[in-house]
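During data preparation, we tokenized the protein backbone, and the record follows.
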Amino acid sequence: MENFLYYTPTKVVFGKGTEKQIGTLVKEYNCKKVLVHYGSGSVKKSGLLDRIYASLDEAGISYISLGGVVPNPRLSLVYEGIALCKREEVDFILAVGGGSVIDSAKAIGYGVTNEGDVWDFYEKKREPKNCLPIGVVLTIAAAGSEMSNSSVITNEDGWKKRGCNNDCCRAKFAVMNPELTMTLPAYQTACGCVDIMMHTMERYFNQVENMELTDGFSEHLIRTVMKNAKILKEDPENYNARAEVMWAGSLAHNGLMGCGTDGGDWASHQLEHELGGMFDVAHGAGLAAVWGSWARYVMDARPERFAQFAQNVMQVEQGEDAAKTAQKGIEAMEDFYRSIDMPVSIQELGVTLTEEQIQELADKCSFYEKRTIGCVKKLDREDIYKIYQAAR
């Protein structure tokens, strides 16, 4: 096993009606003015935003609002938020939504407290030193951004989707009421479940001798999400299933599933980021569309690990050798994706790739041959191109 640092400073307030505590939670930080950041009209229509405003009013906290966050959150809105916060002297950001809203809030927090262009942090030109304090009211179980150090933003100039990881952006608190996820469309719920699983699987597939305990956490988490994803397909208002998935989303991306590993592979995420940037596809669906092709391409570098996954997670019988068992596991995972109406190819994602687009995706994903991705097998620009070809 590898040495590791496990850091989880976020206070979690979990359960029914917990959004009513927002005023009290925010007041603990002695802020003068809050930016309430959110996405579409769903938080308005559901009455959630009104309940949050009422809680802030009751606590005597001043606030302004900025909506309009979309999936694959845009840099242009981040810039707007930075300017608004500076003008209004905002000193706390409350993100009301899912991963896209939280990631946008983190980027705004970076931009307010650091000099220069916030996009530099996502281009890895420099590291942020500070971030405005962030609070979260979670409405979508998926990204795990409510407890992670991660933020992913899409730059419309070139449609580049890039991430920045830094502990200073970790949320101070996360309010998690599973009831708030019950109105999500079935497709969005399924996408969220895939995202949660993939955050665990990216860490699980690595190149080190793993901790048995961490493996056990990871394997059980994935099985739990799979079980409850199927329940929610048939019974979307099942509170217990919503609660299991919501908590799994946070644990999948707060560092616990990576303890003792080398950090994991993350190639599937890098492959999807370029698809998301170019075609604005749902993140979880994009991950499902490329994962099988990635897995088949790299499986021979660590067949015993894929075989363990096949047996312990997908519950397949051991084959003649590790490679055959691994292949059965990949097929079983793709069958699961289909069972919750997720794609297993880019075509099923609703995108018909041209040769020119595949070349462009490979160029962008490899940073024009300046980087490799993954750790199970180091993937250069040619490898990336072949995976996109196989996944098309």
User: Anything to note?
Assistant: The first strand starts at residue 11 and ends at 14. Strands lie at 11-14, 33-38, 62-66, 92-97, 134-138, 150-155, 160-165, 173-176.
